[in-house]
Amino acid sequence: MATSAPRDTLVNVDLGARSYPIAIGAGLLARADIAAHVHGKRALIVTNTTIEPLLADVLKARLAGIEVEVLALPDGEQYKTLDSLNLIYSHLLEHGHDRKTTLIALGGGVVGDITGFAAASYQRGVNFIQVPTTLLSQVDSSVGGKTAVNHPLGKNMIGAFYQPQAVFIDTDCLATLPPREFAAGLAEVVKYGAIVDAEFFAWLEQHAEALLARDGDALSYAIEQSCRAKAAVVSSDETEQGRRAILNLGHTFGHAIETWQRYTGLLHGEAVAVGMLMAARLSALRGWLSAAEVARLAALLEALGLPTAVPAGMQVEDFSKLMLRDKKVLDGQLRLVLMGAIGEAMVVVDTPPELLLESIAQSL
Amino acid sequence: MATSAPRDTLVNVDLGARSYPIAIGAGLLARADIAAHVHGKRALIVTNTTIEPLLADVLKARLAGIEVEVLALPDGEQYKTLDSLNLIYSHLLEHGHDRKTTLIALGGGVVGDITGFAAASYQRGVNFIQVPTTLLSQVDSSVGGKTAVNHPLGKNMIGAFYQPQAVFIDTDCLATLPPREFAAGLAEVVKYGAIVDAEFFAWLEQHAEALLARDGDALSYAIEQSCRAKAAVVSSDETEQGRRAILNLGHTFGHAIETWQRYTGLLHGEAVAVGMLMAARLSALRGWLSAAEVARLAALLEALGLPTAVPAGMQVEDFSKLMLRDKKVLDGQLRLVLMGAIGEAMVVVDTPPELLLESIAQSL
């Protein structure tokens, strides 16, 4: 008896001439035709030393007929630097890669962001394919074309908007992800429900347990809906002139937490979880969100194993000081993403400072 | 009696949403409304230590109402590096520039190329204005959006296609340009006539003396026609997928000369002059250009004080070896820009090696 064919899903990111497909499925890396998206004869897989022994050979097997090299960067956010970028440039030049080469990012957000910017800038732009291996990178950084490296004076300060040819998401990669990292990725999944899709939010409330158990079907569906939501938002505003900023729900509060902890406490997704709840409380103070909706958000985050409390010791002043130097403060204005309802977000610039302070105080 | 108004010329570079104006005129920097093209409240002028004392204050006077800083990089191609780029990023971050800042490049091609790439990559792209001060940068690098820095393993290997908001060209800046640099810029001017504008080529033949005397009207007209020619080519192929490559007439031969001399002999424009004549000879060998047309090109280059001879000691093998590792060798194919007539260029990939060698031998 024949087994049923694997159920791979395709999501299209609609950006005119820069449109591209996202393929999602369990075990996808064992069967996807990745070579079809390599337009030249050569490719460089950029990965890190943790992922390379696990997946580099699996990926190479999908690139028959193409001359492929592998470059493994050291693993960790502290290596998301101009120096790592230069390692990629030097490899490409030492090995004679020309403008027709393709860079393939195999790893989490750090690998994807560095490799994307290397592809954007090597000989003024070469082809680029994303193979994200963490939940966070699958639902967030691999979709939408934001690439960057950090500068000692600020995260993601150097980069480009640059779209890949294609994204391949294999949910089997998540089997070995540590529980905190997995949950941190789910925070961004919740975010998509919160900002644009009330129905998906309700689905998440019903399937929290299945997701935590890493059920393949539940994961595929959650990733697909997340990618669809992000793709729709990005399609409407590729270079973040306005609307795209709703993807930052919880990020301004979360960024203040991460900075206050000097990036040694909560993971990014965990800080975003706390930040989303703070944004929801502020939205309630402005009269837009009901107390019951704030409670639903808190309950879902907790059900998914995410923190909802501000780190002990952090004060109202810590937030207000840090949030006013956030890069989202354009021309001195505090831009915040708030919620009009579950499934509806807006970018507002008229937050009364006393309400901001009150929402922070409520969260301590 | 009122004096007549200065005759500034406007050339539009037509790139859809990325279109921008080029303003050209003698004394333009004393009157142009540059502030109108700065969209935020802050700007950083990036220049070099040679230009800063001559022109930084003149430019600042055109930016009333805007908070302006000046950053002077060391002067020279050897500083067109990732390190110089990082000086710009660090300045911007130390001084709290956000995504609404504007970078203004004041200088020659090196300053323009570095500053353009800094603008392309700082916070994923900020506004950018070009104020080119050398003839070469006025007619070439400031138009078309190619930005880059060098890598130890190759020139212009790291960069982006990134268009400015506006370009301001003051022909008075050329008064103090050393004669060799001035002539080197004229080589690129001749190129535009050679590739797309036979009428302009004939005009150059008639006005070589006026140009060498740096006559204001002649210079303005030559720069205007050069910018129009480049703008038309760039509009048809912004990211150099095909047609734009005709702008490289003479560059593959010229690049071989520069590399053989380790960039310590001929200036770029001088090497391009020699290279254009070599390309013309090859075009004649293919039967496309008459001997008379080759002679006209040689005579015009000489009238403008440009070299036409290959450097002493350089052999046929030096060219063939270097040209086959040029980055224009895509997928192992030698792409050359040849001439079908004066005012007509084409990109060809089917050059018989023996004709290439013969054209080189003719030039030694």
Question: In words, what does this structure look like?
Answer:
The structure is a homodimer of 364-residue chains. Chain A is built from twelve helices and eleven strands. Chain A has 364 residues and is an alpha/beta fold. Chain A has two domains: 9-176, Rossmann fold (3-Layer(aba) Sandwich); 179-363, Dehydroquinate synthase-like, alpha domain, CATH 1.20.1090. Chain A has a seven-stranded mixed β-sheet, with helices on both faces. In chain A, β3 (42-48), α1 (52-60) and β4 form a beta-alpha-beta unit. In chain A, α4 (135-141) runs parallel beside α7 and α5 packs across α7 (216-236). Chain A is globular and about 60 Å long. The mean pLDDT of chain A is 93.
Instruction: Provide the residue-averaged pLDDT of chain A.
Output: 93
Helix percent band of chain A: 40-55%
Q: Architecture of the largest domain in chain A, according to CATH?
A: Up-down Bundle
In the CATH hierarchy, the third-tier topology of the largest domain in chain A is known as Dehydroquinate synthase-like, alpha domain
Order of helices and strands of chain A: EEEHEHEHEHEEEHHHHHHHEEH
The secondary-structure class of chain A comes to alpha/beta
Query: Which protein chains make the most extensive interface, counting residues with beta carbons within 8 Å of the other chain's beta carbons?
Result: A-B, 37 and 37 residues
| Anisotropy-based shape of chain A | globular
CATH superfamily of the largest domain in chain A: Dehydroquinate synthase-like - alpha domain
Number of helices of chain A: 12
